[in-house]
């Protein structure tokens, strides 16, 4: 399944406004990278995945429409699955992407 085109457009616009223009196809979705640091992606499951501080994964996953990302049956610290309904409003999208970009920028560029 491909990424939701509307989600891709919203993410692209948000990241471009902040000078992030590197996007790549990854695992059936479209990923956005800041200086090589994977920050967020439009998921092939319809919502998005966002990067977060691994120490806060459990706490942030308690928000409505948010869960710790799971790959191959295991939770992945530092990544959250955010349902499309949880970012229906621009303010909600901005909150999740701002947090993801802020955290990603604490990591060394690749």
Description:
This protein has one domain (5-104): Aspartate Aminotransferase, domain 1. The protein contains three helices and six strands; from the N terminus they run αββββαββα. The protein has 110 residues and is an alpha+beta fold. It has a six-stranded antiparallel sheet with strand order 1-2-3-4-6-5.
Q: How do the helices and strands follow one another from N- to C-terminus?
A: HEEEEHEEH
Beta fraction: 25-35%
The third-level CATH topology is: Aspartate Aminotransferase, domain 1
Count, helices = 3
Please render the helix and strand layout as text.
Blueprint: H1 5-17, E1 22-26, E2 29-34, E3 37-42, E4 48-51, H2 57-60, E5 66-71, E6 74-82, H3 90-104
Could you give a short description of this structure?
Helices cover 29% and strands 33% of the residues. It is built from three helices and six strands; from the N terminus they run H-E-E-E-E-H-E-E-H.
Descriptive keywords:
110 residues; alpha+beta; Aspartate Aminotransferase, domain 1; six-stranded antiparallel beta sheet; 3 helices; 29% helix; 33% strand
């Amino acid at each position: 399944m491909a990424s939701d085109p509307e989600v891709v457009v919203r993410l692209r616009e948000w990241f471009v406004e902040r000078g992030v223009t590197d996007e790549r196809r990854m695992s059936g979705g479209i990923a956005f990278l800041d200086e090589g640091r994977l920050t967020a992606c439009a998921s092939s499951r319809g919502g998005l995945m966002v990067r977060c501080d691994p120490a806060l994964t459990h706490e942030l996953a308690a928000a409505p429409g948010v869960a710790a990302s799971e790959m191959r049956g295991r939770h992945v610290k530092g990544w959250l699955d955010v349902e499309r309904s949880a970012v229906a409003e621009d303010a909600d999208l901005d909150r999740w992407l701002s947090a993801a970009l802020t955290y990603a920028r604490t990591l060394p560029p690749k």
